[in-house]
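[Q] Does anyone have a clean structure-token version of this?
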Amino acid sequence: MNELEPRRCTCLILTLAALIASASGCGQQGPLVEKRFVANGAWAADGSAALLVESRYQTRTPGRPYFSDQDSFDWEFAFLQADPSSLQGRTELAHFPDPQTYPGPARQIQYSPIYWDRAGGKVLSGHTVFDLQTGSSTALWLPRSTALALFGSIPGASQTEHPEEGFIDSSLLSPDGTKVGIYYELVEPSRSTRAIAFFSVDGTFLASTALQAADRLDPPPAGDVPVRVHFLWTKDSTGAVVIHIERDAQGNLLPASHADRIAAANAAISQVTMVPARAVPTRGGPISGDGKYLLQVNDDVTTGRLPNWIAFENLTDVTLDGVDYIY
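[A] Here you go.
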């Protein structure tokens, strides 16, 4: 078979798929319509309101679910404030074009945890801060020299515009809404890279540090050792705690477990022995202070509740062997 044969086969398969779709009810081409759905949200830190993310897009195949409509385009999303109990009484606070440029349904705003500072009118999603008062957004990128120092030795990273982009693991808005902490992680069989950076919500870079050097090579642990890393803000918003937990097959804490406190102002690291009893990372996030979360049903959301939840401001500190990090 020559090199053109696979392309012909692929074209034939795609053509057959298109014919099948056009013959079915869900694939019929019709007039251009706008579809809307809600799949994500957050809670005000004081529990006074819910924030819903309503995605909107254009399509000629409205019978297709949004997550499989590859012909969809002109995606945007709106932040809606709603009653925290009923999720009704929805009021649009701001709307934005979706920054994702490629077609298709998998948008970060639909599945990435978001954090809402209601008083300050800011929302964090991934590495982007959305200002609900001005309708503007700010991407939080490291200075290139800093990114190269942290990630430049990783193959291919230095050739990208933002070397850290592929390693963003999680981002958190500080409890007081003034700062953002971003945790970066790459774990491979022969390489482990972890770092943390802090920004102000206006996009100003504050500080960063490697928690584990990019060129450090660690041998794989013997056997199946569960390793979990938790990234949490401190209650006073002056820094974050990164907790590295390793347990054996019986659930016993291994000596490699440790916790570091990193200052937001200068990224100074100090090891700590006391950590929050639960992995509640900050306020104003996907889970309310009383344990409510959003659950998608069809094209909208309803609420569920986690049992025995503890609000961020009510957390107590315990030793590492006393943590209860179920959530």
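[Q] Thanks! Anything notable?
[A] The first strand starts at residue 33 and ends at 43.
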